[in-house]
Structures are given as structure tokens and as C-alpha cells.
Design a protein that fits this description.
10% strand, elongated, 4-stranded mixed beta sheet, Serine Threonine Protein Phosphatase 5, Tetratricopeptide repeat, alpha+beta, Glutaredoxin
């Protein structure tokens, strides 16, 4: 009997440790989660679910409990599971236009929506979803939330900031990402992004020179026809 009790206890401890390896979700109010994210300068990952949703249950049992997913998300995000039909859930669902479950959302540390996807993801899919927003040791202290070894991710994030941000600090962050992207793989996409950021920062002379470089790069790549925005920027800068 003692041996049975010991075996049962061991099994329970093993199960608990397996689940501890997965994503650790915050409890409490949405405002508390946002405050914690801002204080720790981490983006927020939200699992918007309903209790009756089959794919939601599948993710909870399979994807969220994966050790590699837990390691990544626990280090990079403040994580929150949000029942869309209870408490603050209906208001949140209305604000974020959530119409399917699960919906997975990523917010900036300041609470700005960065990404929203519908449908269940396996472990690999969750890791791919997180990559553009992962904070590395080199970037966390600077408040940057992008992977620093993929030029496309860096360029995409820099362009997103160009389109949505106006403060000089945010635009300078984006400029750093664009420069890192160029250092990894110089092409007209990231040259164009950097040129637009420089122009938005009022650095017209540098922006003009880089816009020319971007157009030449597009020409070399046989993609000049796709560089209409760069041409528009060049014409605007020359007329200033």
C-alpha cells in the first residue's frame, strides 16, 4: 500500500512538472496584466478562448504544455488566458473584434495590438508566431521586441513602427532595426524602410541618399517596378 501511494505521488509530481514546463499564464484583471507588462517591458501574449471551444482545449492540452513553447513564452512574454464569455471577456472581445476561438493576440508592453491570428496553433506554430516579438538579451534593455537574426523580421517590425509610431524614441528604435536588417542582408526592402524612417525623422539629406541606393538595389534585383513607394519618396525629398 505504501509503495502504491509513493508511486501515485511520484506520478502526480511528474505530471505537475510536465505542465510547469509549459506556458505560465497570469491570473487577475486585464489592467494588472498590462501594468506588469509595462513594468517588465515585455509584450503580452493573450489566448482568447471559450470554455466550449474544442480547438482551445486542444491547445491547452498540447501546445501550451510543450516545454520549448513554455521556455520561449515565459521568458519573452507576459501570458494571459482570457475567457471571452465571462467577466471582462465580452468587453475585450468587442474591443478587439474577436469573432472566432481561439484568437491569439500579441500586444506591445504599452498595450498596443501588434498581431492577431485566429485558429489553433501547434507548438511549432506558436514558436513561429512569437519570433518577431521575442526580446533578446541584447535588445531587452533597449526596449526592442524583435528577433535580431532575421532580416525580414527586423525590417517588418521597423516598417510597422514607421507606419504606426510618431515619437522620436520609437522611430529611432525602428531605425536601429532597419540598420540591423541591412547588416544581415542589404536589399531594397530594408534600404527603403530606412530611407522612409530617416525622412520621418527629418533627416532629409540622408533619406535622399538612401532612397537612391534603394532604387539602385531594386534595379539590380529586377524589382524596380515594385519600388513605387521609394520613387515617390525620392521625388518628394528632391522637391523639398
Amino acid at each position: 500500500m505504501k509503495q502504491f501511494i509513493f508511486s501515485l505521488s511520484f506520478c502526480l509530481l511528474t505530471v505537475s512538472s510536465l505542465f510547469a514546463q509549459g506556458i505560465q499564464f497570469e491570473s487577475g484583471k486585464w489592467a494588472d496584466v498590462k501594468a506588469k507588462a509595462k513594468a517588465q517591458n515585455k509584450p503580452i501574449f493573450v489566448d482568447a478562448y471559450a470554455v466550449w471551444c474544442g480547438p482551445c482545449k486542444w491547445m491547452s492540452a498540447n501546445s501550451f504544455t510543450d516545454a520549448s513553447v513554455g521556455e520561449l513564452y515565459n521568458a519573452a512574454f507576459i501570458n494571459y488566458k482570457f475567457d471571452m464569455e465571462k467577466g471582462e471577456g465580452p468587453t475585450f472581445a468587442s474591443q478587439q473584434s474577436i469573432r472566432a476561438y481561439p484568437t491569439l493576440l500579441i500586444f506591445s508592453p504599452e498595450g498596443q495590438l501588434l498581431k492577431k491570428v485566429e485558429g489553433a496553433r501547434d507548438a511549432e506554430g506558436l514558436i513561429d508566431l512569437a519570433k518577431p516579438y521575442v526580446q533578446t538579451n541584447n535588445t531587452r534593455n533597449q526596449g526592442q521586441t524583435v528577433v535580431n537574426d532575421n532580416w525580414e523580421d527586423l525590417n517588418s517590425k521597423a516598417w510597422e513602427y514607421y507606419e504606426t509610431k510618431s515619437s522620436r524614441s520609437d522611430l529611432n528604435k525602428a531605425l536601429n532595426w532597419a540598420e540591423a536588417s541591412i547588416n544581415i542582408n542589404r536589399n531594397w526592402y530594408n534600404l527603403d524602410t530606412k530611407a522612409h524612417l530617416l525622412a520621418k525623422l527629418g533627416r532629409d539629406k540622408e533619406a535622399l541618399e538612401l532612397a537612391v541606393d534603394a532604387i539602385l538595389a531594386a534595379q539590380d534585383a529586377g524589382e524596380l517596378a515594385e519600388a513605387e513607394e521609394t520613387m515617390d519618396l525620392l521625388r518628394r525629398l528632391r522637391n523639398n
